[in-house]
Design brief:
This protein has 341 residues and is mainly alpha-helical. The chain is 38% helix and 3% strand. It has helices at residues 2-27, 76-87, 129-144, 153-158, 160-169, 178-199, 229-237, 270-282, 300-303, 305-308, 311-316, and strands at 220-222, 225-227, 296-297, 331-332. A hairpin with a 2-residue loop joins strand 1 (220-222) and strand 2.
Length: 341
């Protein structure tokens, strides 16, 4: 029985082999149709880029898409690791630690500089109330009186407190020193004359006040004394040291008076200022005519002739124009008492 079974299997295998050979011969092309393989060309095959060599995405794209590229002969685990590495940004490289064995750099010692002494700046003391009031009056006087002596009484009246403050702080009396005291009394005389006009404003002439005797009225309080304008001039200014030039400094608020000086007198500027005012008055044709013969002079040279001594010599020393012969006796002009505004 076993023999028959083996014989059956052998015949079956033999039949299968014959059938396979016939099938192969039927499908194979004839030898005439066989051609030689085409000649090799100089074509270089570029191997595919590895995942790590793929170009980076544009920095402008916010999200980076990673396309899995087939990598031949690579395991799936290797490809997964490369994709994970592409999706994860590289950590910042930590700076290399400084070796503890590195030798320290050489320290160069700079030359010592000598300490410079800082100068101590002393603060100037704050101005006193008297200095502040005096400066304020000086500014108002300068801006209210023109170069030719015309006074803007309206402007001063609008700021009468400035004048009053000055008179109040200076009412204690003159400073020590001859020149300082003389400058002080000239300033007081002129300031109180302006105050007298403003106390009676408006007024056309100082001669309209107190019956033409305004200079004799005692109404000025200085140093505990009750004084008049005449007392300031005749008792404080003239007797101290006769200087005829003071007549060109004190002002009586009249048009024929020597022009009011629009600055305050001081011990430092007194002498030079008195001389300049004397020269200006002598050569001012409004007051004196030296080209006529005999001369026509201001009445001041008549009223205070004793202060001037030799009037002709005093004038000739200061005349800047071609003076004519003064004649035996000069003519004194009438005085204009209209207000100097």
């Amino acid at each position: 029985m076993h023999y028959l079974l083996l014989l059956f299997i052998s015949l079956s295998l033999l039949a299968c082999d014959s059938q396979a050979q016939e099938t192969t011969e039927a499908t194979a092309p004839p030898e005439s149709q066989l051609t030689a393989p085409p000649p090799e060309t100089a074509t270089t095959t570029v191997p595919p880029l590895a995942a790590e060599e793929q170009p980076l995405a544009s920095p402008e794209v916010e999200e980076v898409s990673v396309v899995e590229a087939p990598v031949p002969n690579r395991s799936s685990q290797t490809q997964a690791e490369e994709i994970a590495a592409a999706e994860t940004s590289a950590p910042a490289t930590a700076p290399e630690p400084v070796s503890s064995t590195q030798e320290p750099s050489e320290v160069v010692a700079l030359p010592k500089q000598e300490a410079k002494e800082i100068p101590v700046i002393e603060e100037s003391p704050a101005p006193s109330g008297q200095e502040v009031a005096t400066a304020a009056w000086a500014r108002l006087l300068s801006s209210s009186v023109s170069g030719n002596g015309k006074v803007n009484y309206e402007k001063i009246k609008a700021q009468l407190n400035v004048l009053d403050d000055y008179l109040n702080v200076s009412a204690t009396g003159p400073p020590s020193g001859t020149l300082a005291a003389r400058a002080y009394w000239i300033n007081q005389y002129n300031a109180y004359t302006i105050k007298l006009i403003l106390n009676n404003w408006p007024v056309a002439s100082i001669m309209d006040l107190h019956g033409g005797k305004a200079w004799d009225v005692k109404w000025i309080e200085i140093g505990g004394q009750n004084l008049s304008l005449n007392q300031i001039e005749f008792e404080k200014l003239r007797p101290a040291q006769t200087d005829a030039r003071i007549h060109f400094a004190v002002n009586c608020a009249a048009s024929s008076c020597p022009p009011l000086y629009n600055q305050l007198f001081t011990a430092g500027n007194l002498n030079a200022t008195l001389e300049r005012l004397a020269v200006n008055f002598v050569n001012d044709g409004r007051f004196n005519d030296l080209e006529s013969s005999p001369w026509q002079l201001s009445s001041i040279f008549d009223w205070y002739a004793s202060d001037f001594g030799d009037v002709t010599a005093f004038i000739q020393e200061r005349a800047q124009v071609g003076a004519a012969d003064p004649g035996a006796s000069p003519i004194f002009k009438d005085y204009d008492w209209s207000l100097n505004d």
